[in-house]
Each structure stands twice: as C-alpha cells, then as structure tokens.
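Hi team,

Below is the intake form for Heat shock protein Hsp20 from Natrialba asiatica. Please confirm the fields before the structure is written into the shared record.

FORM ID: S-0412
PROTEIN: Heat shock protein Hsp20
ORGANISM: Natrialba asiatica
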Amino acid sequence: MADRPSPFDGIDELLDRLNRQLETAARSWESGMEDRSRFDLSMGSSATSLDLTDEGDTFVVTVDVPGYETDDLDIRLSGKTLSIQGERKRATEDDGSDEGEESGDVYIRREREVQSFSRQISVPEPVDAENADATVNNGILTVELPKRDPDSESHEIDIQ
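The structure came back. Fields below:
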C-alpha cells in the first residue's frame, strides 16, 4: 500500500499559527484600549464624535451635536473630568398627544424620537473652570478650557 499523506499532517502547524495570530491581535487590542481609556471615561460606545486638542494655553474639546439646542446640552467640569450630556425628546403637548398629530401631519416613518448621549473625558492637566467657555455653532459644540497657571508661590507644609 502506498504512503498517502494524512489530512491531519498540517493541522498542528495551522493551529499554532492561528494561536500566534490571536495572541498578537489580543495584545494589540489591549494596548489600544489602554491608550483610549487614559482620556475617554465614557461608558459603552457612543455615536457622538469628540476631539480633544491642546492649543498651548487652552484645551479645546469639539463635539458633534447636530440637531441639539443649547438647552438640550449639559456640560460639567469636575476636577480634570469634563462631562457632556445631551438629551432631545419629541415635542409633545400638555395632553400627551404628539405635536405632529395636533398639526395634522401624518407620519409615514418616524425615527427621530428620543436621542441622548453622554461623554466623559479626562483632561491631561488642571484647567481654570472659572474661565471655561462653550459655544454651539452649526451642530458643533466647542468647549475651551484654559489651563490653570502653575502656582508660582511655594507653600510651606508643617510636619505634625
């Protein structure tokens, strides 16, 4: 009987190669998550895009907020953590009926009901919260956070 190659001859090599590729992908994914989590403290994924730039004496956070009014947005700074939340609901009358139904509109498709987002980002250095400024223009929220001047005075600390 002639020697025939076994169909299982290369399976060990194939499994070893697959294992190495999975380990490489896992290491790459973990290092990417470490880099992202250093600044982005948001829970879960978010469809709202956010940029953080360092412009010398100011950090600038830019967030896409199309369709949100200034009253729909809440911006808070706690320490070095900036929280931005937006919530937009369907307009309703006091009796609970939809505004569109009041005006006689008949919806064939209605997807723009309730939209909300929440993003938190850690700013790399302390900022001056008193002089922070936020504006919305053409669906883009811009938050300017001036960096806090380092204390030039030294402070003596008593030893107890």
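SUMMARY LINE: The first strand starts at residue 50 and ends at 54.

Thanks, M.
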